[in-house]
Amino acid sequence: MQLSLIQSIDELTNLSTEWNELLACCSASRVPFLRNEYQRVWWSTLGGGEWESGDLFTVIARQENGDLAGVAPLFLTRNRSGEPALMLLGSIEISDYLDFIVSPSLADEFAEALLLFLASDSAPRWKIVDLYNILEDSPALEALLKAASKFGWNFYVEKLQPCPYIPLPGDWETYLGGIDKKQRHEIRRKMRRLETYTEPTRWYIVSDPLQLDEEITAFFQLMSEDPEKNSFLTVKMRDQLRLSMHAAFDAGWLQLVFMEIAGRKAASYLNFDYAGHIWVYNSGFSSEFRELSPGWVLLSNLLKWANDNKRLAFDFMRGGEDYKYRFGAVDRHVLRVCLSPG
Please, are residues 57 and 75 in contact by the beta-carbon 8 Å criterion? Predict the structure, then answer.
């Protein structure tokens, strides 16, 4: 493998096609947060202001024939402990899943080459490689452990958060038959109540590019009814989310959905429809229609849509909120991995 550095947004942009083609071949890391367009947007705002500063330090590997073989999307900053750290682009709060991009068959070779590169004079002065939000089944974990052991590096793993998800059977009734009987009854009852409501109701997926900005603004309004989410929605974070939604829409994997009651927006979900999975990213609800449970009904309709359209999984991502398990989710976890020379 021949390793080289990407240190500018233009270089990152020029890699877009190769990057996304490699990602499409790497099932273990095939998540929306590793798409080139998402990573570029994240870098342009440093995660909506999560990081004050940083230097792009993305390492790419090519095979002898010139094909892109691996990407370590890194940047140099000071981590939460104030140490000079190499971290994954997307760290930490708004990108649920992160990883290296490399075929499992090349993971060991890439990990060894990367650690040698980071220990060379080509790397900046850093103290720790601090990797957040790596899924527990990532091939990168074993590859990094083996490389660290070979070179005498320190290797530390910390379990962070559960990431509940629902494997989908591809049939709505089969899905309902697999969840708790009481929950199944509640879903049907609430969906039926809204279907027979005296005022007109509908739910829809945003598809008109001319209406996208207006719909994004409406989504922010629903989010901001929650005091915690309102605090989260700083000016920089709104810019980050808007740019991310535009990038996902242009690439064809945005699923921004609304439930309307009597012509007014009652609930919304911001999802990504990518690689056969629905990734549930954020949501917003109006208190006006609370008694009709529009969020619950919209989520149920989304699960029906995902089954009807043969999506493989419905991923709630980070956070162990009770409602996720009531809809039949099972756990997996994301990890923090730290490496440093011994």
Answer: yes
- Which string of DSSP letters, residue by residue, matches 132-187? EEEETT-HHHHHHHHHHHHHT-EEEEEEEEE--EEE--S-HHHHHHTS-HHHHHHH
Q: For residue 67, give both structure tokens.
A: 């094909």
| pLDDT, tens digit (0-9, with 9 covering 90-100), for 84-118 | 999 999 999 999 999 999 988 999 999 999 999 99
Q: Answer yes or no: do 254 and 169 share one domain.
A: yes
* CA proximity to 91, closest of 111, 72, 106: 72
Residues 15 and 47 both lie in one domain = yes
Q: Tell me if 325 is assigned to some domain.
A: no
Full domain range(s) for residue 49: 2-163+334-340
Exposure of 327 in the CB half-sphere (CA atoms within 13 A): 26
The pTM (predicted TM-score) of the whole model is 0.95
Residue 202: CB atoms within 10 Å? 9
In this structure, the answer to whether residues 17 and 156 fall within a common structural domain is: yes
Residue 38 per-residue DSSP state: H
